[in-house]
Amino acid sequence: VVALVGPLLISWGNYRSLFEAQASRLTGVNVRVTGAIEARLLPSPQLTLHDIAIGDGRDTIRARSLGVEFALGPLMRGEWRAAEMHFAGPQVSLGLDASGQILAPNLAVAFKPDELSVDRLSVEDGTVTLTNAANGASVTLEGVWFKGEARSLVGPVKGEGAVTIAGQLYPYRVALGRLSDEGALKLRVNVDPVDRPLSIEADGTLAFAAGKPHFDGMLSLSRPVGISARGAAQQAQTLTQPWRASGKIKATGQSALMENVDFQYGSEELGFKLTGVADFRFGTRPRFDSVLSGRQIDLDRVASGTDAARQAPVAAIRKLAEVAAAAFRPTLPIQIGVGIDQVTLAGKSIQNLRGDISNSADGWDLDRLEFRAPGMTQVRLSGHLDVGTDGAAFAGAAEIDASDPKTLAAWLEARTETPQGELRPMSVRGNVTLAGDKIAVEGLKAEFERELVTGRLAYFLPSGKRPARFDAELKAPQFDIDAALDFGKALLAGSALERPREMSVAADIDRATLAGIEARDAHVRIKVDANGLQVDRLSVGDFAGGNFSASGRVETGGHAPHGTLSLDFEAKQTAAITAMAGKFAPKAVNPILSLLDRVDHAKLHATLEVTGEDESPITVAQLALAGDLDDLRIDADADVRSDWSKPSAADVHINGTINALQGAPLIKLMSLDRIVAAGNGPGQLKLELAGLANNDMKFEIRLSTGGLLAQASGSGRFFEEQDTKVVANLQVMKADLRPLQPAGAVSSSLQMTSRVAIVGSAVTFDYIDAKLAGSSIRGRLAVDNASPRRIDGMLEADAADVPALI
User: Fold this and answer.
1) Largest CB tally within 10 Å, which of 193, 424, 432, 592?
2) Which of 70, 11, 18, 74 is nearest to 42 (CA)?
């Protein structure tokens, strides 16, 4: 009765000093009990101490209560076996000093710790503060709880519990072996955070040598498959792929080395595997360094799955970056060296992928990333991969050497390669930006066809109501425009890129080749947008012996365009220019261009003025042309009225005059100098043309010199892609045919009327009525456009001077 009831009647607080003295003797440090003390003997001995402080200073261990219930039978046999030991609200500080030694309360127990076993060991609402003097970092484990058993105070111990760090709950399971005489024990720990899909497992030996902890064993980190929300409103959901990293680890308080690392991302069917080593560095500048390698990886399966449509490389990389950003959110600096023999991306193989990858606050840094892409292309990249909620973007230095640029371009756009054109090798250097809205290259150095081009390029993809836009600023000592056009045509054949409707181009080229003709000192400053065409500068210092410059602006933002353009042109040799113009101009203007073949020097000024009203679609374009062709003075103006949406139906009015102080240059310009003598005095050629461009246009031509007076009037179609068709009435009032006669012969004068029809280069003269040297001639003649030409016809004359005619 005394053993059962007596303890309940005793005020154990009166024995506080006794408890404190005995506890201090057992722990080797000062122990204070400031709260209530409870004790009983039956049915089993039990002791509960409240508000405990063990030790002094910063090493003090505190607890709200410590309760111990001993098993009575073993106690009667002299065995220390606690049926239950419970800590409530313990507070402990642990840490590492700058050298990696453990900082912990220095307890010197005065009993054998292996003689005390605990059947049910529990801790609730504990707080553990971990510090690292090397970098000043500290972590507080709050709400620590544990339930388990301890065979002795030196192990083995096993159980489970949880801690809260920064508001996140981390459940764990732990198993400790018995502490050996060498200060080592077996350790197995599993941590499964609640708010993070991450599992951590460690299994090995934890040893303490000279106060420094050392762990040697296996470490495994894994993330299961799951669903995560992303986006501004966190409404969009994406499936996160599982990953697992495991390997042998050797860790101290200052570093951890992980060998034989096996990293698998994704499932067995759709994922990939890498192997390598990893090195963790703690202290003032913690970091993670790793080297990973693999033989073959299929990124198409990782990004899209087995049955997904083929994606462009940029889209696939962007998706992989987004997935990686969702899967890995490191808080310490990371650098990974990568070496992969073959990577499948966008249906093609990338070979020998090598480089270093490190993390930053907003993405990943790529350093010396090098690989061999399709088209026998060697690629080197160094820059930053920005990963945000709106996607991924790369910005940095790039070097591309492509032996087959056409294959490379087809792969980049995930399209089938077209057979059009063969391209020579290409080399590109510059600071590249690849984002969801643009492709840009700053500091461009491109070489193709053995020609170097520097400057910058930017292509902005269409978005919403904003059309595609292209900006360029280029410089080149020598540039073959013909080859560049062929190159671009072959490179972009079948491309899905939208042609830009807005452009800004600035170019300075010392020597250029266009249509096989060399140009020097070329400068271009042109801008095209939704509001119109702006020509700040368009000039060539030397183009086939000539030069020209143009400037002005035409607004197209309203219903009808309006604005002004001006052109100045001067040439000492016009033959090469007409040859080039003939390659681009319609067939209808070829006869006019052929006239310039007989001109050595030309100096022209042209002004184009476009007017229109916003309420009407009708546009009025007025062209004024004035200048000199050798000794000839040309003045012309054209008036064109058309619906901006139907330019082929324009109403055209052209008036032009060519004047000469002497008629000979004018006769030579018309290629009549071998037939007609110009005579003395001035000469004039006058032209009037009017009508609809897509219909028959009426015209009148009058040519007069001292030896020739002729005119023609009729109609024809001049602006169709087919051959020119003209029908006119020709009247020659006077023509001196002296050039056809031998020297010393009497001059022959011609007068004639005829109906002339021209189809292409074939000419027919009908209803000829002429007088030549006093003889009357009637009939018809036809000259076809065959090679050699054939002349067919019939002529009648009342009298003929045969030697003169021959």
Assistant:
1) 432
2) 70
Structure tokens at 640: 């064109």
Element (H, E) at 130: strand 116-132
Quickly count: other Cβ atoms within 10 Å of residue 239's Cβ.
11
Type of residue at 608: L
Query: What does DSSP assign to residue 788?
Result: S
With helix as H, strand as E and coil as C, how does 219-284 read? Answer: EEEEECCEEEEECCCCCEEEEECCEEEEEEEEEECCEEEEEEEEEEECCCCCCEEEEEEEEEECCC
Residue 495 CB coordination number (10 Å): 15
Query: Which pLDDT score, from 0 to 100, does residue 230 have?
Result: 47
Both tokens of 736, joined, read: 């001196």
Look up residue 759 and give its two tokens. Answer: 């189809």
| Residue partners of 624: CB distance under 8 A and separation at least 6 | 606, 607, 609, 636, 637
Residue 391, sorted as left (phi over 0), alpha (psi -120 to 50) or beta, turns out to be left
Q: How far apart are the first and last CA of the chain?
A: 164
Place of tokens 């042309």: 625
Cα 73–76–77 angle (5° rounding)? 90
Identify the helix (H) or strand (E) that includes residue 436.
none
CA distance 268 to 241: 11
Contact partners, residue 11, CB within 8 Å, separation at least 6: none
Mean pLDDT of successive 10-residue stretches along the chain, which has 806 residues: 62 78 78 87 84 86 89 70 87 85 78 79 93 83 93 88 91 92 90 84 90 90 68 50 88 89 81 88 82 86 60 68 61 86 86 88 84 89 78 84 81 67 78 86 86 89 85 87 66 65 90 78 88 87 82 77 87 64 54 66 90 74 91 93 78 94 89 87 94 90 93 87 83 89 73 92 93 87 89 90 71
- Taking the C-alpha atoms of residue 787 and residue 152, their distance in angstroms, rounded to an integer, is 116
| Tokens coding 723 | 């051959």
Rounded alpha-carbon distances, angstroms, from residue 642 to 184, 639, 750, 754? 96, 10, 43, 35
Residue 319: per-residue pLDDT: 67
Closest CA to 36 of 3, 11, 53: 11
Cβ proximity of 706 and 678 under 8 Å: yes
Q: Rounded CA gap, 711 and 365, in Å?
A: 79
Burial of 740 from C-beta contacts in 10 A (0-12 / 13-18 / 19+): middle
Separation CA 279–CA 288 (nearest Å): 6
Pairing of strands 102-103, 184-191: unpaired
CA 806 to chain centre: 76
Q: In terms of Cα–Cα distance, which of 521, 458, 517, 447 is closest to 484?
A: 447
Which helix or strand (DSSP H or E) is residue 408 part of?
helix 405-412
